[in-house]
Known about the structure:
- The chain has a 3-stranded antiparallel β-sheet, with no helix packed on it.
- Among the domains are: 90 residues, Ferredoxin thioredoxin reductase catalytic beta subunit (Ferredoxin Thioredoxin Reductase, Alpha-Beta Complex), CATH 3.90.460.10; 34 residues, Rubrerythrin, domain 2 (Single Sheet), CATH 2.20.28.10.
- The chain starts with a helix and ends in an 8-residue tail after the last strand.
- Helix content is 31%, strand content 16%.
- It is α+β, with helices and mostly antiparallel strands.
Amino acid sequence: MSLTLETVRKRAEADAKNNGYYLIPQTELLQMFLEGLKTNEERFGYPVCPCRLGTGNIDTDRDIICPCDYRDPDVAQYGACYCRLYVNKTVYESQNLPEVPERRPPEKMARAYNTATTQQQTPTTNGTPTKPQTQITTQGQKAKVEKNLWYCKQCGYVVYREDPPYVCPICKAKQEMFTKIDANIEFKG
């Protein structure tokens, strides 16, 4: 069965309704976003957010599979997600789309764009700042995604990925409610 735009629309509408959201009220923008989701799903095999660059590596892209990890905190804070596909009732009725800053961490965006990033961390020793440490990912270098088991302390949801989701997809608990499970996992092929 081939993926149709109507299938993509129905899936987005169902997700919006289940979470108390609406789809963007501007018809032309909605059409562009749905076409982007369809194109990304046909290209990668999963629906990468239409306003972000996917890599084709599901481990790298997991946080931006629509609805992305950042949708719920964005809608809660700004009334819309980053690309404004999902909006709350106030934004839907007013049709005034807010500016939503990018919430995705720079190191994850750098992996997608395959560019150099520099992160400076200023560690302290007994409260005294020491020399900043710089981590550099250079162009052409594949960053390894280290996956972990994460457990939601509120509902028991377990997920295997790089970072816990911003919001639990089951109980809507915040990321802070997830704890890392230390376990040895052996995959047999």
